[in-house]
Amino acid sequence: GSKAIVVDTTAPLAPVITTPAAGALLSVRRPGISGTAEANSTVSIAGLPDGPFAVSADASGNWSYTPSAD
After folding, report:
1. Which of these, 2, 47, 51, 55, is most buried using a 10 Å CB contact count?
2. What is the pTM of this model?
3. For the residues 18-43, what does the mean pLDDT come to?
4. Which 8-state DSSP code applies to residue 55?
């Protein structure tokens, strides 16, 4: 039999950081960072001492990361 190939040409929405909140003042040196993205996608994050790095969103689109360096 034949096989169908589906090409997804729709760009995903940009990932969103949900924690910490925008403008939050934090008292911890390495706060956990989490958010949402397209399910099963890779989120690239830059601007941290140990970055840039990539994390994977789960099947629900949730992702998280805790920096390993100050």
Report:
1. 55
2. 0.77
3. 92
4. E
